[in-house]
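Q: I'm writing up a methods section and want to include an example of the input and output format. Could you take the sequence below and give the corresponding predicted structure tokens, formatted cleanly so I can copy it straight into the document?
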Amino acid sequence: MHEITPSSERRPEDRLATEEPLEVRLTWPGAPARRVWVTMRTPGHDFELAAGWLVHEGLAPPAAVHGVAYCTDEDLTAEQELNVVTVTLSGPPLRDPGHRHGGSGSSACGVCGKDSIAEALSAPASSAWSGELPSDAVVRGLPSLLRSQQPLFERTGGVHAAGLATADGTLLVVREDVGRHNAVDKVTGSRVLTGASPAEACLVVSGRAGFELVQKAVAAGIGSLVAVGAPTSLSVRLAADAGLVLYGFASPERCVRYT
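A: Here is the clean output for your methods example:
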């Protein structure tokens, strides 16, 4: 790389965040594995990403995710071997995933493959959070706490992060990815694969509060969403309709509560 300033030019070493495709296949007893999604992601925690995505899409409850494994088809190339995963469900999905067959998305796309505007605007049903919520003081401290647990961002500056927190501000899990929605999928998936509930008091994210992140928080049964950046009008609307507490512009100095 060349670093160019008004007064100089130099060639320092640079580290880039990895971005590669991940194909997710789905199978259940009596059904052959079929491709349901392809996304661009940062490799790592791929099983969590696949499991979390299925839960957030309303295709399977957490308890139905029986297992996840890398695909071992003989016709896969060396580059594909760690970029294809198969999720095994204990029974058929809650709805037909057929319309997503062959669907794909970029690392910035949280709603690719949706069939209609109405579907994109709907949030999968989940039980509303009934536990304690973080205080405003805890909310203001969460972004700094999240930032302290972002080693990949520290090295590259090129990834988003998401963390699941209790009402007192304890971070239970943090995940990083080039896609902000992927990071959230990995957080939920980490809970699903360990048998823990993905529902908790707070989800904190390093970027803006787009409506796709609100969808995922609602689907996981989370009580509040805290974003470092701004929400959109649609994310505020969805949060209000679902009873999700939504914060934006969270920092040690202030936070803005929208719902």
